[in-house]
Each structure stands twice: as C-alpha cells, then as structure tokens.
Amino acid sequence: MSLHQKKHPFLEKLLETAKSVTLDSSSKVLVLSDLHMGNGGRRDEFRRNAEIVRSMLQDYYLPGKYSLVLNGDVEELFKFSVESITGCWGDIYDLFLEFRKNGFFWKIYGNHDSDLAEEPDYRLKSHLLESIRFNYGNETMLLFHGHQASILLWETYPLVSRAVVLFLRYIAKPMGIRNFSTAYNSRRRFAIEKSIYEFSNQAKIVSIIGHTHRPLFESLSKVDHLNYRIEELCRLYPSAHSRERIAIREQITDLKAMLDACFTEGKRIGLRSGRYNNIVIPSVFNSGCAIGKRGVTALEIDGDRIRLVYWFKEKQGRRFVSDRSNQAEQLGNTGFYRIVLNEDHLDYVFSRIHLLA
Ligand SMILES: [Mn+2]
Fold first, then answer.
1. In the chain, which end has fewer C-beta atoms inside a 10 angstrom radius, N or C?
2. Which of 187-201, 313-327, 337-351 comes out lowest in average pLDDT?
3. How far is the CA of 36 from the centre of ligand 1 (A)?
4. 276 falls in which pLDDT band (50, 70, 90)?
5. How far is the CA of 150 from the centre of ligand 1 (A)?
C-alpha cells in the first residue's frame, strides 16, 4: 500500500485538499470545461459557440435547477489579458453567477487560467478552486482540470507556468508561433488519461476532468465505446432469435458506419485508443470542451445518473447520430439541439469500480 501512495503525488494532494460538496438524490450538476474565452475577436475560439453556451445555460440548465461547475481553462490567458476577456463576455459571467441560486457555482482553474488566483479584481475570485470532491453516499467523485497529471513541469508548477504564459503572450504570439502549448498531442493525452485512470482505480473513485478536450465516458473514448458496443452485440447475436438477429445486424451496421466516420472525419481528435488495460474500469469521465467545431460537450449529474451530452447547431451537427438511438431535442426555437451521447447509473459505475479495480 505505502509503495503506491507516492505514485501520483499531485493527484493525491488534489483529493486531500479538495473542497467537499455533498450531493443528494435530487442534486443536478452541469460540468463544463475548456471554454477558452478570449476577447471576442478572430482568435477567440469561444466565439463560435458563445451563442450555444449562452442559450443552454440561460434556457435549459438555469430553469432546470442545475448547479454549475466550470472545470478549468475557462479563460484563454495564454493569448488574452483577463481585462479583455471579462470586458467582452460580461453577460456570460453574469450567467455563471446566477447558478448560485440553484445550489452552487464553482470554478476550477486549469493551466490556461490558473493565474487568476493572483488577480485581485477577478469577478469569479471567491468561487475559484483547484479541485472539488463530490460526496455521493459513501462514494467520491473528484473534479479537477487534469493538467496536474502532466509530465511537463511547466503545466504543474505555477512559477514555471507563469513564465510560459508570458513567453506565449509576448514572444510566441507576436512571432507567430502557434500551438506551442496544446495538450492535444495524442501520446501526451494518453499519458495524462492513463495516470488519472490508475490513480482513480487505486483510490476507488471517479475522476471528472477536462484539459485534453477529448470526451470520455466510463473511461472510454468515442472510438472505444463504439468498439465496445459492437463487441457486446456480437456476443448477443448467436443466442438471439431470428427477429432479434435482424435488429442486431442493423445496429452493428450503424455502429460500424459511425466508427468509419470517426476515422475519416476525426483526424484531429486523435484516434488512439483510450483503453489502458484489458478490462475497462469506468473511473474517468471527461466533459470534452466548449470550443468544438460542431458544438459543445458536457457532463450532467442528475440524481443517481450521469450523462455525456452534446449541444450543437442544427446545420453543423446534422450528421450526428447517437448509437443509443437517442433523439436530439431542440431547445425551444433556438436552433440549438441537445443529444444524450451516453448515460448510466452512478451506482452501476461505482459497483464496477469496486468489483474490478
Ligand atoms: Mn487545459
């Protein structure tokens, strides 16, 4: 035991120092990460989904009595000053703060916005945390951004990080050096996911992260999830009756088409498998990001359930299909749609962790 205790010192510390929040059977929480808000200009990646985010918060999650956790990289301080960001997106900040009336609002910082702890006038300063521990019965969900698992020192040590921010803002940017800082490299992303996976299994908790921009549900990426579902159906097939067999065959055809689409369309998302060992332990969830080309992914905790959802604009996301045959639902007449990509009972998730980890 003691041998393992020092294996993930940064993550152990996040668990020890986390702000404790107790959930009950009626708690609803929206977890959103990686908004990368900028100054509203051309280089602001948040801009293209700002309307979706505004609308989903204002017209869906606020009236739906959700609390809100922003899980890091809310502001893009590698490119913009905090004044230019808060000056541009004031109404979005107002919206964030409104979630207090539904229960709570917390902002966890990531590697792109960690400097805000030092800003005396920052609007969300009193809501800023590094990690949150949700107590769900006897179980724990630990929310943190995820950069703490990086092997790169400048992502984990504040002083180094600060130097890098200054380098990026004043040297790299004017010189046109781009993407110096991204966590999107698939090998690095895999390493981060893997160490959080090991840590979570060892502690028998669920970790909810962001940072890599890759949605994970029960430790599975989209590609892994599709493969997994195909496997399940193949196992069902031999013992199924002839009419069921037709349905299974059709489902497998759909799943295979979606898998193919991942490989033809999804070059940038990184198709490396997220499977870290032979058995899948559902201990890592990732909310993805709010700056996707086609929309916004998020995690919802709704009483005893957890969901990965996707919000998109009608035109952009039209080709999207859910393998659980869930239907996309439009939010009023906004032209914005929400679809449940995956959903499970938290009791099932924790049972698997205790049985398998
Ligand atoms: Mn990050």
1. N
2. 313-327
3. 9
4. low
5. 10
Q: Rounded to the nearest whole angstrom, what is the distance from the C-alpha of residue 326 to the centroid of ligand 1?
A: 30
pLDDT at 277: 63
Query: For residue 156, how far is its CA from the centre of ligand 1 (angstroms)?
Result: 11
CB 346 within 8 A of CB 321: no
- Per-residue pLDDT tens digits for 174-203: 554 444 444 446 677 778 888 999 999 999
Long-range pairs of 313-318 with CB within 8 A, sequence gap ≥ 24 = 313/52, 313/337
What is the third-level CATH fold of 2-221+277-356? Purple Acid Phosphatase; chain A, domain 2 (3.60.21)
CA of 275 to the centre of ligand 1 (A): 21
Please check the confidence at residue 8 and state whether its pLDDT lies above 70: yes
Amino acid letter, residue 206: V
Q: How far is the CA of 191 from the centre of ligand 1 (A)?
A: 14
Quote the ligand 1 centre to 113 CA distance (angstroms).
9
- Band (pLDDT 50/70/90 cuts) for residue 227 is confident
34 CA to centre of ligand 1 in angstroms: 7
Find the 80 Cα to ligand 1 centroid distance in Å.
15
CA of 57 to the centre of ligand 1 (A): 22
CB atoms within 10 A of CB 134: 24
pLDDT surpasses 90 at 44: yes
Domain boundaries, the chain: 2-221+277-356, 223-272
